[in-house]
Specification:
- By secondary structure, this protein is of the alpha+beta class.
- It has one domain: Aminopeptidase.
- The chain contains four helices and seven strands, in the order βααβββαβαββ.
- The chain has a seven-stranded mixed beta sheet with strand order 1-2-3-4-5-7-6, with helices on both faces.
- One of its GO terms (molecular function) is N-acetyltransferase activity.
Length: 157
């Protein structure tokens, strides 16, 4: 089962919203319009596609100015039928490549009870730096804030 990663398409916004309702029902899932607004804002969004059909999505925003960027992972969602097949990892790596190309430290929030996601982020260099109590609404679930340092190119050896 081959999955390709590419820019998220406007026509996928409705599918993203359906997946949001499935994946994040207790925590104010995003609407199709929210995804369209993210794309309009210039945020960096990727889609994961199998035979042209969307099976996952992820988004990252760059904040600041050139030479002093920070990045924030806004979301990663994977169709439940595709979870456990490396789709989330592919999306995260694509987002991190974009952040690394801009020398940006990356931040994100993740539910404290989402051990799978925490493991993925930790394996990709993220560390817990704080807790946001009752971050997710309306469920009231807590979130860890995690960060990953900017990738630094090594000089000549």
């Amino acid at each position: 089962m081959t999955v390709s990663i590419g820019p998220l398409r406007y026509r996928d916004a409705q599918h993203c919203a359906r997946l949001e309702r499935q994946l994040f029902a207790a925590d104010d899932p995003w609407s199709a319009r929210a995804f369209e607004s993210e794309l309009d804002s210039g945020a960096y969004y990727l889609g994961a596609y199998h035979d042209g059909a969307l099976v996952g999505y992820g988004g990252l925003a760059l904040l600041g100015k050139s030479g002093d960027y920070e990045a924030e992972v806004h979301t990663i969602g994977v169709d439940p039928r595709w979870q456990g097949h490396g789709v989330g990892k592919l999306l995260l790596r694509g987002l991190l490549e974009h952040a690394d190309a801009h020398g940006a430290t990356v931040f994100l929030e993740v539910r404290t009870d989402n051990e799978t996601a925490i493991g993925l982020y930790t394996a990709h260099g993220f560390s817990k730096i704080g807790v946001r109590r009752r971050y997710y609404r309306p469920s009231g679930a807590d979130a860890y804030t995690m960060s990953r340092p900017a990738a630094v190119e090594e000089g000549p050896k």
